[in-house]
Specification:
disordered N terminus, GTP cyclohydrolase II activity
């Protein structure tokens, strides 16, 4: 059977923006969250916001967490992502209210899982994280935070206290209409496996990581 076509033979207009699809309770080791699932019609990604308590509208404790399979699921010490996710979930539970927006499609600062693994292989040969992406002909950071802003607006959030060391996240939220009242550091103690990576984030990507000054003895 032939699919119906819109008026005057035109194809139906494609949907854009972010759409809330489902809200489900999610008990975790950190507390009882609500997992609110969204569909990003612009990129086709499925997204989720983990909401704790009554958010309110202003000064909501918020984390925009970029998907990192190796760190979040496998406990990789190449980065601090898994520890940051855990710390953010603990923080919003301790606060009594807050949201962690988990951003899929952000793997490897937006280059994808296999490309990230290729970049990690180059880093093992001596390149830093910026040099590795560029050597693969890929952008240093390809992430887009429009969907995060759309999700926060859908949740009724006007302004946030943003748990992040990355000034670009703050700039992106403001650009997309979400005010950032405060940037809350999310500092994880470095280890020998990630100290070079973290120093590169500070020196080449402008992340605010003042605690690295106290760990100069790590190689």
């Amino acid at each position: 059977m032939t699919e119906k076509i819109g008026v005057l033979g035109k194809q139906p207009q494609r949907r854009t923006g972010v759409e809330r699809v489902v809200n489900a309770p999610l008990p975790t080791v950190y507390g009882k969250f609500q997992a609110i699932g969204y569909l990003d019609h612009d990129r086709g990604d499925e997204q989720v916001a983990l909401v704790y308590g009554d958010l309110g509208a202003d000064r909501v404790l918020t984390r925009l967490h970029s998907e990192c399979l190796t760190g979040d699921a496998f406990g990789s010490q190449h980065c601090e992502c898994g520890d940051q996710l855990a710390a953010a979930l603990r923080a919003v539970a301790a606060e009594g209210a807050g949201v962690v927006v988990y951003l899929r499609g952000h793997e490897g600062r937006g280059i994808g899982l296999l490309a990230k693994l290729r970049a990690m292989a180059l880093q093992a040969e001596g390149l830093d994280t910026v040099e590795a992406n560029l050597a693969l002909g890929l952008p240093v950071d390809a992430r887009d935070y429009a969907v995060a802003a759309g999700m926060l607006k859908d949740l009724g959030v006007r302004s946030v206290r943003l748990m992040s060391n990355n000034p670009r996240k703050r700039e992106a939220l403001v650009r997309h209409g979400v005010e950032v009242d405060e940037q809350v550091p999310l500092l994880i103690e470095p280890c020998e496996s990630n100290i070079t990576y973290l120093r590169t984030k500070r020196e080449r990507l402008d992340h605010h990581l003042p605690h690295l000054d106290a760990v100069g003895h790590l190689s």
